[in-house]
Amino acid sequence: MPMPGGGPQGTRVEGPNPPTWTPPPATKGDSVPGGPAIPAGPIEPIKLLTSPWSFHLEIVDGKNLVTAKVGKTVQFRVVCEKIEIQSPLGHIQATGNVKITNQTLEASCDLLTIHLNDEALLLEGSARMKYQHEGQELELRSDRFSLKLSDIHKGAPTPAPRIGTSPPARPPVVIASP
What we know:
Number of helices: 0
Largest sheet: 9 strands, antiparallel
CATH topology: lipopolysaccharide transport protein A fold
CATH class: Mainly Beta
Shape: elongated
CATH architecture: Sandwich
Number of domains: 1
């Protein structure tokens, strides 16, 4: 029996209680009012993200202290005033006097973004980085740059976390943007 107003057909039940309406069952290829069409073919399973990152968050003296680790050997600390986390497919953003450090790297910026599906840091706003390795030092300043991280000694034990995408004698790859 059609519902008043020309809506979809279903079953109307009357009796001592107020009338109720049960919609007809959906079939493949139908669309749901206000929603997407029901797929006619098999439904693909959702692929779950496995992020290369792990994080530990502490609040010390009113500041956020994040220990971030990517892979098995790259680890660093981030200190900032505010941290926002969007997961599982999102990012982590640190703002407010952001400082990034590990044994060979010191960096600072106004906004740090770590995308959870990428092994890189995006530093924006008065970005500065100092990298030291085997007695050599590299210092960069820019409004924005991206720092790609990776395990440079895959499978080999390392005495300390390292940053870079090339052999140990070279500094990390940095892409500066104007």
